[in-house]
């Protein structure tokens, strides 16, 4: 209601200003026809009066006031409660535990960028290629370690199998366990061979920086060519050579 009254008043003032402008123009026109000093003074006086009246009577132009944005903190709400907040920014925030785990893994890797790892006895519960012909069981606790490893290195998995059916069985078990989820191990980087010597050849051809295996003979053969090795066994964790470490499990070594 008050806005409408102000608008009407502004219109009235505008009309009055236009009316005075026309009247003043007529008066000035008459005075200019008389070129005496008095007439010129009168014209100047009328001009000054006109300018003063125009400034007083002209309608004021109201500028829109900018709207104030509400402050979520002032309203007692956190930034996550504000509609339209980008949740993707929250995904990059890591917990202190995740930071510590990442630092531990980088330290245990010791700068190794390419890692090769045996499946039997490390990733899988089975202990021999013969067992894989009947069943394949992925260790539940190892999936998270493999996923974290892929963030810090190029990871290859490999195993000795006795037939093509076993290959398919192993790949199916790994996929069901989520090993091939986005950001995890690539399915194309799971390699199979028919002999233990074939696994040794894989490691050398890939020029691995770190190899993980349960066969001490393979570990010993590769010690001349591979910078670091991890021997998974029941023996006490430690270091049996300058470049050979031991651990009871993959997850225990990187914990």
UniProtKB/TrEMBL annotation:
Q: Which UniProt keywords apply?
A: Membrane, Transmembrane, Transmembrane helix
GO terms for biological process?
peroxisome organization
| Any Pfam family matching the protein | HAD_Pex22
Record's compositionally biased regions (Basic residues): 61-70
Q: Where are the transmembrane segments?
A: 37-57
Question: Sorted alphabetically, which InterPro entries does this protein's record hold?
Answer: PEX22 (IPR037485)
- The UniProt annotation puts the region (Disordered) at 61-89
| Name this polypeptide is given | Peroxisome biogenesis protein 22
Lineage, opening ranks: Eukaryota, Viridiplantae, Streptophyta, Embryophyta, Tracheophyta
């Amino acid at each position: 209601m008050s806005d409408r009254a102000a608008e009407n008043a502004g219109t009235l003032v505008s009309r009055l200003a236009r009316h005075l402008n026309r009247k003043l123009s007529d008066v000035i026109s008459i005075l200019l026809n008389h070129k005496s000093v008095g007439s010129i003074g009168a014209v100047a006086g009328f001009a000054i009066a006109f300018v003063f009246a125009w400034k007083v009577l002209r309608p004021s132009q109201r500028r829109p006031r900018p709207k104030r944005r509400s402050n979520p903190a002032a309203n007692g709400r956190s930034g996550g409660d504000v509609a339209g907040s980008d949740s993707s920014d929250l995904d990059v925030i890591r917990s202190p535990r995740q930071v510590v785990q990442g630092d531990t893994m980088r330290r245990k890797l010791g700068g190794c960028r390419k890692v090769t790892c045996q499946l039997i006895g490390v990733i899988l519960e089975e202990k021999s290629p013969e067992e894989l012909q009947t069943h394949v069981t992925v260790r539940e606790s190892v999936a998270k370690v493999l996923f974290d490893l892929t963030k810090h290195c190029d990871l290859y998995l490999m195993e000795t199998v006795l037939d093509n059916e076993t290959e398919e069985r192993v790949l199916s078990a790994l996929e069901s366990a989520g090993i091939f989820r986005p950001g995890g191990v690539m399915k194309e980087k799971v390699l199979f061979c028919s002999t233990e010597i074939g696994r040794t050849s894989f490691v050398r051809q890939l020029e691995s920086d770190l190899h993980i295996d349960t066969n001490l003979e393979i570990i010993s053969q590769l010690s001349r060519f591979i910078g670091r090795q991890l021997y998974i066994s029941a023996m006490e964790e430690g270091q049996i050579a300058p470049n050979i470490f031991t651990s009871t499990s993959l997850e225990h070594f990187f914990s």
